[in-house]
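>> received
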Amino acid sequence: MLRDLKKMGHVVELGRRPGARGRARTRRLERRGALIDLWTQAYPGQLRPGLAPRRFRAAKPGWWRGVDFARYGLALGGEAAAERLTRHLKPETVTLYAVGGAERPVHQDHMLLQDPGGEVEILDAFWNFPAGAGLEGMVPPLLVYADLVATGDDRCLEAAKLVHERYLARPDGQG
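>> returned
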């Protein structure tokens, strides 16, 4: 993947780090905004379908508010995560990402019933890194953004713009 990013001009090798051993190099991410756009466009058609999406319906509306998803090995994404990040969107869908199939206890504790048309969607997590500061129990903002853009829904696109401005754009406007 790093080789592909270099070919596309998104990663630049700056040379060997002082005192580094072996092949350790200093790299810089270039064209960050274009890379965010590319990933956001590719995510719904290439990566997301392979995450084994499952749908459920909840017995109680708003069941997800106040839940410590990290305790369940889950991370909140999509519309519900955008609501937590921006306080702007009233979610119609709750998207959760499960680490290692850890969703079973949340089904029981919150009475989630399998339903292909349900408003709760659980997908397999595809990353292996800790949550960012202050985002425990949530997916990274880039994934929240990609989930929102993938809906094509006007209210989600408006929330996506806020997520981008607050969490993805750099102060210099380059991304």
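>> The CA atoms of residues 14 and 96 lie 38 Å apart.
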